[in-house]
Amino acid sequence: MLDGHCRLAVTPVHDQLTKLLVSDPSNYNSDNAIEQVQTDEIRKSLAKTGYYLFQEFHYEGIKTYLSSEDLHRESIQNFEFYTFEDEWMTNIRSDTTVSSKTLMLNILQSFFNNWNDFDQENSNQFVGMGSNSVDEVYSLMTSFDNSTAIVIKRDPRDIVASVGARETSSWTIDKLLTDYKIKDVLEYYSKVSRLKNEFPERIEVIEFDDLILNTDETMKQISEFLSISHAPILTEPTYCGNSLEQDYLGEIHDQWEDILTNKQQALANFQLNEQDISQLEYAPNHLSIVLRNEIKNIFYDVGKPIYESL
What we know:
By secondary structure, the chain is mainly alpha-helical.
């Protein structure tokens, strides 16, 4: 929804380039040129991100959804992946050391230089998509002094229902529940909350339901956070600046109460500490999961032994 705003340069793929800041914070060394070993190291780091989705963007075009099941691809004529790649590689050849930070910036700048459908004359902020990693957010905050992050928060039960019900998903609802993913989401939100306390002016947490049901006010909040004007295009579902035919706003279609079975709801609620596990027919297996997670937490709690806080 941000990619239609003239002040924002939004990547059209789930680039996850912030992983560069976490997976390889060291420098890539060279003697005023990109030697083969350095190129290999850079490519290994890029393979951990969504960088090669830019190549897919080149070959397969823009994804457009007429509905959640009806996917179309529109070919693009104005982006050449290899020209883009050659540009950022050329840009870093003159540097004796290339950090993950400069690599990330060069890739983003070169992409928008070479995507001719994008008008970057008025844009002043890069916007990319990371993964659900607090380490990435922290690395972004500490690497770029003027960086910001928006975290979308949703009821973990809705996340399980939405992901597990997708026909294209490799995760079933039962697998998400038995692998204790709700607990993982709650731990992630807890870490985000602590990180927001450390960077209160640079991290914004948005409720998913507010974004869908109260879009205009929520996007005004985001506009203020990003220091951009609130434009009507921000209240429309868009991709590459184009309005999507399917209306995703105004109603939530994948709520957990409508999708999860009674047994699945019982396990989901237990993981939110709302129900006694003894009521579940398959309690012993899940009890072992609980014990395993509790034992893990005794020894490790975001890098801090629990006994230090007792």
